[in-house]
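JOB MANIFEST
job_type = single_chain_structure
chain_count = 1
residues = 128
[input]
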Amino acid sequence: QVQLVESGGGSVQAGGSLRLSCALSGSTISTYCVTWFRQAPGKEREGVAGIYTDGDRTYIADSVKGRLTLSQDNAVNTLYLQMDSLKPEDTARYYCAAAGAPVCSGASWYRSKNYNYWGQGTQVTVSS
């Protein structure tokens, strides 16, 4: 069975950096569409960045483009989200989710309902 575990969240000042990790177990991460979502209280879950490594597909939300970067270490089945120049509006609980490769398309990657597997989330708080 596929399991996802997020880590790396914390509290930082505006302009600071964090690196989130998403470790997948039970399968090979590069064969999945794996995406970071975030959700703040009272707001809809928002797709942040997604990747399907074997298909050379990477997606990034306009709201974080230029500040957040995806990378993946296939040797340890882990996806990373490097977050730089953080803003208070980045404050949210960040979730890692995985789905079959076809979900990683321009029309599907950001839709949370398409994902089968979810981690427990990790909190990111950015203070001004």
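[summary]
The longest strand covers residues 92-100.
The chain is about 0% helix and 50% strand.
exit_status = 0
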